[in-house]
Amino acid sequence: MLVPVTVSTTMGTAGAATPAVACTSQKAGLAAKLVKDITAALKGRVSTTAVLVNDRVTRTSCVLRPDQAFDSASVVKTTVLAALLWDAQKTGRQLTSTEKSRATAMITKSDNDATSALWRQLGPTRIKGFLAAAGMTKTVPGANGYWGLTQITARDQQRLLAILTAKNHVLTDASRGYVLQLMNAVVPDQRWGTPAGSPSTARIHVKNGWLPRATHGWRVHSIGAFTGTAHNYQITVLTHGNKTMDDGVATIQAVARAVHRNLNPTAPARLGYVPTGTPEESVPAVPGRPAQDAAPANPALR
C-alpha cells in the first residue's frame, strides 16, 4: 500500500512560501524520511529547484515543482540522442559512423558542435515527433537552433529516464542500452550532480547542464539513472536562480545525497564529483543576450 506523505517548507528568501516536497512509498517510513531530508537539503537555498525521484524497487516517488519550466542547457542532449535513435528506428536503419561519433561526443563530453549538427539534422518536426511519442508534452524545443534554450520540466525529464530504463514502445532495448552506455561513459569532470552519494554498487548514468544568463542567474541541472543489483531508480534535479555554478552543483548534490542515503541506507556511498572551474566549451549565441550576459572567454553550456 502506498503511504503518501506531504509537508510544507520554505526555501530561499525568508518567509517566502514555496511548493512542498511530496513523497509516496510502499516501504514503511521511507516517504516521511525523504520528505524531511530533501526539505533539509533545500533549506536556505536561493535557487528555484525542481525535483523528481522514482524508485521501482521500493515503489517510491518524490516530486517538487514537476511542471516548472527551465532553460535546458545541455541536459537536452540526452533528448537529442533519443530522438535520433527513435527516428532511425522508424526506417529500420543503424546510426552512421558520423552519427555515432557525434552522439558519443555530445553525451560523454557534452560537445556543442556535435549537438548542433544533430539538432539541424533532425529538425523541429522529428524532434517534436519524438517528444509526442515519449509523452514529453511540456518540453518545447528551442527556436532557431538554440537547443540550449529548450524549455524542459522535471516531469518530462523523468519520463525520458523512465523510457531509457524500462521496456517500452518508444525505444528498442538496443536504443535504450546505447543511450545508457554513453551516459555511463561521461568524462570524470562531468560526473557530478545526481551521482553524488550514490551507492558504490550502482551503475551510474548521468547528463548535466549549466548555463549563465542575465535573468535567473545560473541554470544548473542533472539527470541520473542508477541501475544494477537491487538498484532501479532515477533522479532529476533542475535549478535556476543560482548566483554561481558551484551554488547550483551544491544544491543538486545535497538533494542527491539525501535520496541515495534513504534508498540505500546500508550501501557504501560515493563522494560527489566536483566540476572543473573553467569549463572547456563555448556557449552558443543566445538571442537578445545583453552585454552583462556576455559569456567569458571560457564559459559553460553543458
How would you describe this structure in keywords?
disordered C terminus, 7 helices, globular, Beta-lactamase, 35% helix, seven-stranded antiparallel beta sheet, two-stranded antiparallel sheet, alpha+beta, 302 residues
What can be said about this structure in brief?
This protein has 302 residues and is an alpha+beta fold. It has helices at 30-42, 76-90, 97-108, 112-134, 154-165, 173-184, 245-263; strands at residues 3-6, 9-10, 17-18, 22-25, 48-55, 60-64, 70-71, 151-152, 203-212, 218-228, 231-242.
Topology:
Layout: E1 3-6, E2 9-10, E3 17-18, E4 22-25, H1 30-42, E5 48-55, E6 60-64, E7 70-71, H2 76-90, H3 97-108, H4 112-134, E8 151-152, H5 154-165, H6 173-184, E9 203-212, E10 218-228, E11 231-242, H7 245-263
Antiparallel strand pairs: 1-4, 2-3, 4-6, 5-6, 5-11, 7-8, 9-10, 10-11
Helix pairs in contact: 1-7, 2-4, 2-6, 3-4, 3-6
Region (Disordered): 269-302
Domain Beta-lactamase class A catalytic: 103-216
GO biological process, one term: beta-lactam antibiotic catabolic process
Structural summary, described in words:
This protein has 302 residues and is of the alpha+beta class. It has 7 helices and 11 strands. The protein has one domain: DD-peptidase/beta-lactamase superfamily (Beta-lactamase), CATH 3.40.710.10. Helix 1 runs antiparallel to helix 7, helix 2 crosses helix 4 and helix 3 packs across helix 4. This is Beta-lactamase class A catalytic domain-containing protein. GO terms for molecular function: beta-lactamase activity. One of its GO terms (biological process) is beta-lactam antibiotic catabolic process.
